[in-house]
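Why do we care about 3D structure at all? Because function follows from shape, and shape follows, mostly, from sequence. That is the central idea of this module. The next example makes it concrete: a single protein chain, its amino acid sequence, and then its structure expressed as tokens.
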Amino acid sequence: MIRWSEDQQALRAGVVAWCAALNEGHLARDAAATFDPDAWKLVRESGVLGLPYGRRWGGLEQDLLTTMYVLEGLGHGCRDGGLAFSVTTHLVSVGVPVQRFGSAELRERYLPGLVDGATIGAHAISEPDAGSDALRMRTSARRDGDRWILHGSKAFVSNGPVADVFTVYARTRAGGGPLGISAFVVERGTPGLTVGPPVAKMGLRTSPMAELFLDECAVPAGNLIGRPGAGFLILDHVMKWEILCSFIVNVGEMQRRFERCLEYARTREQFGSPIGAFQAVSHRIVDMKVRLETARRWLYDTAARLQAGENVTVDVAIGKLLASEANLASALAAVHLHGGNGYMAEFGLEADLRNAVAGTIYSGTSDIQRNRIAAMLGL
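And the structure:
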């Protein structure tokens, strides 16, 4: 059980204080599938985007656990699931790899804008024929003097339509396996880079998504993150952060949903009794609580072990599987518990359900996580 310090609690409370303003109009934004620049401005002012970054670049210099604790508070207070997803995507996509692996020049050039949020980040990993199987990527990069020439396409780029800078993963050595992939910072507006139109999707509608096309796109040699061939190592680091940060937000959402369902079960009466008196309802709420606490403890325990330098490959896969499926089960239970009201858009629970489906797909599907765990067990 983690004992959060007064400073950590104050950081979380400081971000949560912005949630009432972030929630204004969230259902209308979801219905229209729009990213709201004014809401993003509030996110910037909250300071949440600077949590894991050094003070040198305007950040708050917090560790992973503290960052997650504050993000859980954001998930609990912010009803706009798409906006919260855009926040975590921005946090980990460019800033995390540049701060950890980038040159001093890259850090000075990009981190101040990313920390402030004036520059929006996204990462381009998946491809039409290579989703969870990143080693199958076909996007290539070849050295040409003081430039790298990128060619290929990327799919499912969250924040793509509004991003100012992308981390693009590309193959720099044919047949090189994990050592044949490299990571590059590519700015919007670079000749040869085309960002496709927003893609309509089932949930997380206020977090815009697009395809990315690279047609002989030339980037400076200095925009390589780390060394050639280090892309898979960088991606592994980024994905650990993405899973832990994204799904601790879902834990906050599950906590809010649980509290809402518990109150509803205590106050909603049918057949002369609160519906919570019926075993079918009470057991559903108990299951919500068990899933919530299991996901929360697993994610924080994994983060603590990662900070301690331990190998958490299996733990991250288990955490992602647990949290994503717990969130989906929680969202579905909430809709059922609220009956007709749960099915109505105005109550926001159906949006929670649509959003939760995405968690079982992005960052590696549930089936991929099971395959990964099985492989680590020697199966």
